[in-house]
Amino acid sequence: MLSYRHSFHAGNHADVLKHTVLSLIITALKEKEKPFFYLDTHAGAGRYQLSGEHAERTGEYLEGISRIWQQPDAPELLQPYFDAIRALNRSGTLRYYPGSPLIARHLLREDDKLQLTELHSSDYPLLRNEFSKDDRARVDRADGYQQLKSKLPPPSRRGLVLIDPPYEMKSDYQAVVKGIQEGHKRFGTGVFALWYPVVLRQQIKHMLRDLEATGIRNILQIELAARPDSDQRGMTASGMIVINPPWKLAQQMNTLLPWLHQKLVPAGTGHYAVNQIVPE
């Protein structure tokens, strides 16, 4: 089943969290001169038109990126993320939102490499066209989880793997754990970043227990909630699980999350948290 289209949700509070963490990890990897590899297992279309039918129908970006990208008191740590957004919106009007592949493309250097994978029949051609002139990138229509076996370890032995499935099926919560286990077995020094939605808290608790049971060390959890947990339909929060996080990441997110929560959740509901769920 491949009905999910991220274009309905582009730029929402979950994207803000995911892409803030992504930009901080990439910025940290760039502190060393040696090139690195970026693998995006569920890359999407790459670029999303916020005035398009899908985004306008939900309006989720109005409660996400629209609230923060031009705030004068924005923390300096957000500038790499905001720079990637400004690169698509040079007029100063927020017309497009960059998905994770375009944020990575903007932040990566000339010698770094991108491997992007998307299965959706509508999104894959858009992604391929977006990167058709970028020699650093390879775009495949393939199973993203399979890439964790076939593309790792990268020749550079440095890299970031972003795993961001649609969670259309309950089995995705188990599939991501199995995928991380396979990828980590091949590339134990790599940074793995897993995005997850909180729809039912029990699913996340099970996923975290399964991750801990793998024996993988150094696992950081970052979460931002717009609403309290609920048994009703809909996403209340989202998070990032980062394996082998850059050493500054926890501190950076502890600095950013209070500001993000204040701007994105002005009613003061929900929560934010940074937890080292498995030590080094």
UniProtKB/TrEMBL annotation:
<dbReference type="InterPro" id="IPR007473">
    <property type="entry name" value="RlmJ"/>
</dbReference>
<protein>
    <recommendedName>
        <fullName>Ribosomal RNA large subunit methyltransferase J</fullName>
        <ecNumber>2.1.1.266</ecNumber>
    </recommendedName>
</protein>
<dbReference type="InterPro" id="IPR002052">
    <property type="entry name" value="DNA_methylase_N6_adenine_CS"/>
</dbReference>
<feature type="binding site">
    <location>
        <position position="19"/>
    </location>
    <ligand>
        <name>S-adenosyl-L-methionine</name>
    </ligand>
</feature>
<feature type="active site" description="Proton acceptor">
    <location>
        <position position="164"/>
    </location>
</feature>
<comment type="function">
    <text>Specifically methylates the adenine in position 2030 of 23S rRNA.</text>
</comment>
<keyword id="KW-0949">S-adenosyl-L-methionine</keyword>
<feature type="binding site">
    <location>
        <position position="42"/>
    </location>
    <ligand>
        <name>S-adenosyl-L-methionine</name>
    </ligand>
</feature>
<comment type="similarity">
    <text>Belongs to the RlmJ family.</text>
</comment>
<comment type="subunit">
    <text>Monomer.</text>
</comment>
<dbReference type="GO" id="GO:0005829">
    <property type="term" value="C:cytosol"/>
</dbReference>
<dbReference type="GO" id="GO:0003723">
    <property type="term" value="F:RNA binding"/>
</dbReference>
<keyword id="KW-0808">Transferase</keyword>
<keyword id="KW-0489">Methyltransferase</keyword>
<keyword id="KW-0694">RNA-binding</keyword>
<feature type="binding site">
    <location>
        <position position="118"/>
    </location>
    <ligand>
        <name>S-adenosyl-L-methionine</name>
    </ligand>
</feature>
<feature type="binding site">
    <location>
        <position position="164"/>
    </location>
    <ligand>
        <name>S-adenosyl-L-methionine</name>
    </ligand>
</feature>
<dbReference type="Pfam" id="PF04378">
    <property type="entry name" value="RsmJ"/>
</dbReference>
<feature type="binding site">
    <location>
        <begin position="143"/>
        <end position="144"/>
    </location>
    <ligand>
        <name>S-adenosyl-L-methionine</name>
    </ligand>
</feature>
<feature type="site" description="Interaction with substrate rRNA">
    <location>
        <position position="4"/>
    </location>
</feature>
<dbReference type="InterPro" id="IPR029063">
    <property type="entry name" value="SAM-dependent_MTases_sf"/>
</dbReference>
<keyword id="KW-0698">rRNA processing</keyword>
<dbReference type="GO" id="GO:0070475">
    <property type="term" value="P:rRNA base methylation"/>
</dbReference>
<dbReference type="GO" id="GO:0036307">
    <property type="term" value="F:23S rRNA (adenine(2030)-N(6))-methyltransferase activity"/>
</dbReference>
<feature type="binding site">
    <location>
        <position position="100"/>
    </location>
    <ligand>
        <name>S-adenosyl-L-methionine</name>
    </ligand>
</feature>
